[in-house]
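Project standup — Tuesday

K.O.: blocked on the structure for the chain from last sprint. Re-posting the sequence here as requested.
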Amino acid sequence: MLRELTEAIQRLPPYQRDVLLHVSMDPSSYEAASAALGIPVGTVRSRLFRARNSLQRLLDDVAPERGRRSRPAIN
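H.V.: unblocked you, prediction finished:
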């Protein structure tokens, strides 16, 4: 499962992957991610939302191939 997650994250566009990884590693604030990545807070929120949705779809596509049910939503 960890391998599937890693592969799915690697398939995200770089701008979504960067935000997702930054917020996942340091969830203290979107403002910190904004400052570190040099983008507005609204852009951080938007990219994170899209990254999570994309990641969920990628993982759902893998689940039937492995004979498993879909995973719960990523929040």
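K.O.: great, moving the ticket to review. The two ends are 18 Å apart (CA to CA). Helices lie at 2-11, 14-25, 30-37, 41-65.
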